[in-house]
Design goal:
409 residues
Length: 409
């Protein structure tokens, strides 16, 4: 029987397939540029809208937490859908979900309904669970040598998203006179619709040789591997700490007397820093190794916290956000590359879903606790809590390097 044609189901990895891998990486980069703007819009405005709609101001960042909860909850259903229907159909469905979520969030603002707005951001988050798998989809047809570059190519689409998202906020936030900020979420819905067109150009992999072990090893056996634990923890720490600081930063800036436009531009510079290094992160991994690049990202995240502790001027916030973005890029792409070493082709879908569920579940907790901690202890308390997880992750990477456990699955 022929092997399935879904990208997610093939085991086709010869170097000759890189022509398709490169095309798909470009398509996914375009989709990332469009769909990747959604989190920027929610992060920039979620807390501000929450403050205006929520009766309990401690719940101001709940919409952002629900964005990340949607990411976590959507990972497994998204993986199951794409395994059955293929990447292209799955991503088109995901874009439709993003379109619906943006419209619902805008309606929630217009109706002065905090629950509806929160439901909209939750749905937008589930759209993000599809977008986050773009980085893995780029490796499905890539040779081992091209995998880190394929991930980097896709992540460069976030560089465009780093401009599109905040600029959508700036240009459309007052588009609906009776409902401030609703226009930005209608803009997000439009971008999701455009991403649906982009992913329709995704190509499936050539027919591969079906594995004799269709299900692969049990998931519990795979996730108990020391190398998977290290890869998942470093990815979790990189993404959670980035979200932890980024969620609090706009509210902290406004609380310190800085204007909304400065907060939005700070997020824009942060997102540019998140994705800008993707042009050369793959080369850095090829030269210095996955572990070293991941460790460098964690160190940059710690430096961002140090800058955050040093002052509350616009320059301090923006510098911290830029360092935070750079650290996320190196840490998260490095950790993603580490994860790709932990599974066989037939195990790809379930391991990727498990990894992202762990990461975005923790990110949801980080974003919600960030708002509560900011309200209770201020910006300084947020930045101090960055250091312990960074130390733990660095120790795990050092231990892995010492025991030389990075070996093919």
């Amino acid at each position: 029987m022929s092997a399935p044609t879904s990208i997610s189901d093939t085991s086709f990895h010869p170097a000759s397939s890189d022509s398709i891998a490169k095309r798909n990486a470009v398509v996914l980069a375009v989709a990332m540029a469009l769909g990747g703007s959604s989190p920027a819009i929610v992060v920039s405005l979620g807390g501000l809208v929450g403050q205006s709609l929520a009766s309990n101001k401690e719940l101001a960042t709940l919409p952002i937490s629900l964005l990340n909860l949607g990411l976590a909850l959507g990972t497994v259903p998204a993986a199951m859908l794409m395994r059955k229907a293929g990447r292209r159909i799955g991503y088109m469905v995901g874009a439709g979900i993003g379109l619906a979520g943006g419209c619902l969030a805008a309606f929630g603002i217009a109706a002065f309904s905090f629950p509806l707005f929160c439901l909209g951001t939750l749905i937008i988050g589930s759209y993000g669970s599809f977008n986050q798998s773009y980085r893995f989809a780029a490796t499905d047809t890539a040779s081992e040598a091209f995998k880190p570059k394929a991930i980097s190519w896709v992540m460069t689409g976030g560089l465009v998203a780093g401009v599109v998202g905040p600029q959508t906020v700036i240009w459309t936030r007052d588009a609906v006179d009776a409902a401030p900020f609703a226009g930005a979420f209608l803009g997000q819905a439009t971008l999701a619709m455009l991403s649906m067109i982009a992913v329709s150009f995704l190509r499936p992999a050539p027919l591969g040789i079906a594995s004799s072990k269709a299900g692969g090893r049990p998931l519990i056996q795979i996730v108990r591997q020391p190398r998977f634990i290290v890869a998942a923890v470093t990815g979790l720490v990189s993404y959670s700490l980035m979200t932890f600081m980024m969620t609090a930063a706009p509210l902290a800036m406004i609380g310190c007397g800085h204007p909304v436009s400065a907060a939005a531009l700070g997020i824009q510079w942060h997102i540019l820093a998140m994705f800008g290094p993707s042009f050369f992160t793959g080369r850095l991994i090829a030269r210095f190794g996955k572990g070293a690049v991941t460790a460098a990202g964690l160190v940059l995240i710690a430096l961002a916290a140090l800058v955050g502790l040093s002052g509350i001027g616009i320059a301090h916030f923006w510098t911290a956000l830029v360092l935070l973005g750079l650290g996320w890029n190196l840490g998260f792409i490095g950790a993603t590359a580490l994860v790709t070493e932990c599974y066989r082709p037939e195990e790809r879908a379930k391991v990727q879903a498990a990894n992202d569920f762990l990461i975005f579940g923790s990110v949801a907790v980080a974003s919600f606790s960030s708002g509560k901690l900011l309200s209770a202890g201020g910006w300084e308390s947020v930045t101090w809590l960055v250091f312990p997880p960074v130390v733990v992750a660095l120790l795990l990477l050092a231990w892995q390097q010492k025991t030389k456990m990075i070996a093919p699955a």
